Amino acid sequence: MALSTAVHADTAIHGVRGFLPDLRFTLQSAGGKTVTQDEFRGKTVMLFFGYASCPDICPTTMAQLSQVMLGLGKDADKVRILFISVDPHRDTPDILQAYVNAFDKNAIGLTGTEKQVADVARRYRVAYQIEKPKNDDKDNYEVAHSRGVYMFDAQGRARVLAADTESVEALTESVRGLLKSN
């Protein structure tokens, strides 16, 4: 099935080729390693913005993405989940990697300085706001953030934007379409 036919009016999956920019970032991963989009050339990428202490949306979406990876079978080695934190104050690269490893051993947790995170979020039109701390505890706060799973083909071109509420089956179908188009 061609990708264009995988985008149905009754789903929240949208083809975005030409509407969103290609995959591009410079962030940090576990061990303080600087990572750019070049690390993922040749891989289909599912990108999600969130934060490790998110109480509901992020763990649910990461669980969905891990189910997509399981559903891909042997093709999963051609796909990477990238989780970019919008909470650079609490989410160190090592904390993020431990978080994403709980869902998928090939997922990559990424963060950076406030400016680096803001630049990448702005690039993909992701809105987020760090709320005021609760009970005067500077580390007890939530982060409001927009939701969605961005999918990039093996050349790093933005191809699909899916709602995080989309079914695992529909997400898997979109990834399979991207893999076929590679």
Keywords:
Glutaredoxin; globular; 10 strands; about 180 residues
Structure commentary:
By secondary structure, this protein is of the alpha+beta class. The protein has one domain: Glutaredoxin (3-Layer(aba) Sandwich), CATH 3.40.30. The strands form three sheets. Strands 1-10-9-4-5-6 form a six-stranded mixed beta sheet. Strands 2-3 form a two-stranded antiparallel ribbon. A two-stranded antiparallel sheet has the order 7-8. A hairpin with a 3-residue loop joins strand 2 and strand 3. Helix 2 crosses helix 5. The chain starts with a helix and ends with a helix.
Strand order of the largest sheet: 1-10-9-4-5-6
Largest sheet: 6 strands, mixed
Q: Domain count, please report it.
A: 1
* CATH architectural category: 3-Layer(aba) Sandwich
- Contiguous uncertain segments of 5+ residues: 1-11
CATH topology: Glutaredoxin
Q: What gap, in angstroms, lies between the N and C termini?
A: 13 Å
Counting DSSP E segments of at least 2 residues, the number of strands comes to: 10
| CATH superfamily (homologous) name | Glutaredoxin
CATH class: Alpha Beta
Summed up:
With 182 residues, this protein is of the alpha+beta class. The chain has five helices and ten strands; from the N terminus they run H-E-E-E-E-H-E-H-E-H-E-E-E-E-H.
Task: Give the helix/strand layout.
Elements: H1 3-6, E1 13-15, E2 26-29, E3 33-36, E4 44-50, H2 57-72, E5 79-85, H3 93-101, E6 108-110, H4 114-123, E7 128-130, E8 143-145, E9 149-152, E10 158-162, H5 168-181
Parallel strand pairs: 4-5, 5-6
Antiparallel strand pairs: 1-10, 2-3, 4-9, 7-8, 9-10
Helix pairs in contact: 2-5
